[in-house]
Amino acid sequence: MTAARYLTAATPLRLAVGGLTVALPILAIEEHGDIALGGALAAAFAYRGRPSCSTAERGAPVAASSPATG
User: Most buried one in 28, 32, 45, 65, CB count within 10 A?
Assistant: First the structure.
């Protein structure tokens, strides 16, 4: 698959997901009147996809040791 074909296929899906991250919290607030629910959804979408620890943050590999081996 060429880069142009990949971008052509992936762009509509990425735009739809991007719109959903905005629309769903707003819809939750409108339908339920619960700002906390909308905020929780917005936070969940903002956190989605972020790694817990990137390669840059990890640095060099550290040898694992257990309490038994010291």
Answer: 28
What element of type H or E holds 57? helix 55-58
Return all residues near 42 (Cβ < 8 A) that are at least 6 apart. 21, 25
Residue 10 has a pLDDT of 83
The model's pLDDT over 11-56, given as tens digits with 9 standing for 90+, comes to 888 888 778 888 888 898 899 888 999 888 888 887 766 555 554 5
Q: Does residue 21 contact residue 13 with C-beta atoms inside 8 Å?
A: no
Spatial distance between the Cα atoms of 20 and 26, rounded to a whole number of angstroms: 10
What are the structural domain ranges in the chain? 20-50
